[in-house]
């Protein structure tokens, strides 16, 4: 029974990962065989945003968008590199009062696989 509950929790959606004080890290699976990680960290009064996609193939090109409160803070392409077959987009953005909601989304141009992660800071 306990094994079934653990398996169900694993499949339920994005997970939190241990982080430094103040960091928010979410991870999850993409629509095929890749995984994503969205990390938000305090950075000198601002917010550092890191969105990473890890896939088993090197040389794949992805369209990537990072949004903060519905507004794009990055839009571009990234190609997976060795040795792990991953890419990371990093941006530093303002940290106004209140909660900010972030979305990282990447789409593989060849396979159509989609990765989408959300986190709040």
Give a written overview of the molecule.
- The protein starts with a helix and ends with a strand.
- Helices cover 8% and strands 55% of the residues.
- The longest helix is centred in the first third of the chain and has 10 residues, at 2-11.
- By secondary structure, it is mainly β.
- The protein is elongated, with a radius of gyration of 15 Å.
- The chain is built from 1 helix and 9 strands, in the order H-E-E-E-E-E-E-E-E-E.
- The protein has a single domain (14-120), classed as Immunoglobulin-like (Sandwich).
Radius of gyration: 15 Å
The percentage of residues in β strands lies in over 45%
Considering DSSP H and I runs of 4 or more, what fraction of the residues is helical?
A: under 10%
- Largest beta sheet: what is the strand line-up? 1-2-3-4-7
Q: Domains counted in the coordinates: how many?
A: 1
CATH class: Mainly Beta
Q: What does the average pLDDT come to? A: 88
Order of helices and strands: HEEEEEEEEE
What structural class do helix, strand and pairing data support? mainly beta
What is the CA-CA span between the terminal residues? 35 Å
Number of helices: 1
CATH architecture descriptor name: Sandwich
CATH superfamily: Immunoglobulins
Major β-sheet, in short? 5 strands, antiparallel
Uncertain parts: 1-13
- Please report the total strand number as a whole number: 9
Q: Based on Cα principal axes, name the global outline.
A: elongated
As for the CATH topology, it is Immunoglobulin-like
